[in-house]
């Protein structure tokens, strides 16, 4: 690889990572790699409801502001994640007592306080995350229970009121699992578009695995692009140990297979219209900081950098996809 080659310098669309603020502050190798390789950053946890809004009248901006300042100093875009989710609920929301109007006001105030705080600094948001189950039914989240299924559209309206310039995304996983889940997501998006709800983009998480049928990735990407909205591959990682084998080790062959899969996904993404390419974001930076190992309690190596922050074959795969 020629000296000076970077992801951000080589790809025709923004390339980002989910960033952990503690590592950014305390790990110089991590920080240097983030500065060098990426031009878009998503906070891994720093902008989630439980982090930002721990008490009804208390907002904790510290880590998120640190990330935003870091991004500004280093010329990087920040994609906000996530205003509303069924997870990362602070206990004051879980335990909140109030009538429908009070819940509606809670939701609106939460969204608008956060979007207003970052207005002019965070130009895009995952407004609602993971509203559907894998079988295509609407997830029975606290928001559905208290406010009914159309809370999703109102979240977008509230965010838009607070910052009319922000690009607003619906984010979910499983578009590549099959037609069932992605069809309900695309129906939701098309329905909101037809009603004039301010939605600009579709985020496909793409927490995927090396042995996924490749045509499923193509189907996910092309059908998302058919909405006409911006398309963000928002949380890409390619797991190598989806069967949770506790004794698996990373072989050269497996790393090369992973490179081919990254290449395939990047190539499929690069084939959608330029104007719709919001970018690709990997979820985390390296195999040392991947959420997969902790979340699924298994060894895995899903990212383009290894545990020492060195480039893996997947890195070259990404470059070869364009
Ligand atoms: C994950 C983080 O990576 C973890 O550190 C945290 O403990 C749980 O959330 N889909 C999403 C992300 O939208 O917000 C999740 O991030 C990963 C799955």
Automatic annotation (TrEMBL):
Top-tier EC class: hydrolase
EC number per UniProt: 3.2.1.8
Gene Ontology BP annotations: xylan catabolic process
Segments forming a coiled coil: none
Keyword Signal: yes
Thylakoid listed as a keyword: no
Pfam families named in the record: Glyco_hydro_10
All copies of domain GH10, residue ranges: 8-321
Active-site residues per Swiss-Prot or TrEMBL entry: 235 (nucleophile)
Gene3D superfamilies listed in its UniProt record: Glycosidases (3.20.20.80)
SUPFAM superfamilies per record: (Trans)glycosidases
Catalyzed reactions: Endohydrolysis of (1->4)-beta-D-xylosidic linkages in xylans
Database matches in InterPro entries: GH (IPR017853), GH10 (IPR044846), GH10_AS (IPR031158), GH10_dom (IPR001000)
Family according to the record: Belongs to the glycosyl hydrolase 10 (cellulase F) family.
Protein name: Beta-xylanase
Species annotation: Mucilaginibacter galii
């Amino acid at each position: 690889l020629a000296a000076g080659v970077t992801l951000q310098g080589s790809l025709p669309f923004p390339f980002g990572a989910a960033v952990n603020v503690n590592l950014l502050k305390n790990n110089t190798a991590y920080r240097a790699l983030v500065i060098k390789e990426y031009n878009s950053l998503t906070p891994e946890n720093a902008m989630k409801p439980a982090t930002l809004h721990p008490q009804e009248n208390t907002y904790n901006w510290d880590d998120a502001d640190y990330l935003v300042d870091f991004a500004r100093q280093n010329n990087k875009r920040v994609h906000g994640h996530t205003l509303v989710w069924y997870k990362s609920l602070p206990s004051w929301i879980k335990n909140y007592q109030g009538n429908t109007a009070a819940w509606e006001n809670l939701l609106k105030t939460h969204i608008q306080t956060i979007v207003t705080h970052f207005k002019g600094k965070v130009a895009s948001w995952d407004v609602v995350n993971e509203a559907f189950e894998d079988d295509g039914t609407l997830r029975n989240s606290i928001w559905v229970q208290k406010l009914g299924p159309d809370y999703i559209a109102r979240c977008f309206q509230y965010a838009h009121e607070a910052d009319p310039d922000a690009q607003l995304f619906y984010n979910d996983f499983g578009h590549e699992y099959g037609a069932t889940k992605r069809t309900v997501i695309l129906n939701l998006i098309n329905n909101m578009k037809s009603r004039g709800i301010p939605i600009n983009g579709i985020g496909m998480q793409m927490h995927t695995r090396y042995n996924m049928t490749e045509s499923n990735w193509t189907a996910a990407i092309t059908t998302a692009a058919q909405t006409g909205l911006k398309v963000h591959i928002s949380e890409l990682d390619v797991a190598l140990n989806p069967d949770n084998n506790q004794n698996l080790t990373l072989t050269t062959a497996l790393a090369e297979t992973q490179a081919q899969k990254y290449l395939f996904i990047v190539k499929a993404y690069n084939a959608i219209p330029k104007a719709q390419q919001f970018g690709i974001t990997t979820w985390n930076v390296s195999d040392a900081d991947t959420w997969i190992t902790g979340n699924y309690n298994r060894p895995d190596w899903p990212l383009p950098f290894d545990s020492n922050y060195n480039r893996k074959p997947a890195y070259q795969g990404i470059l070869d996809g364009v």
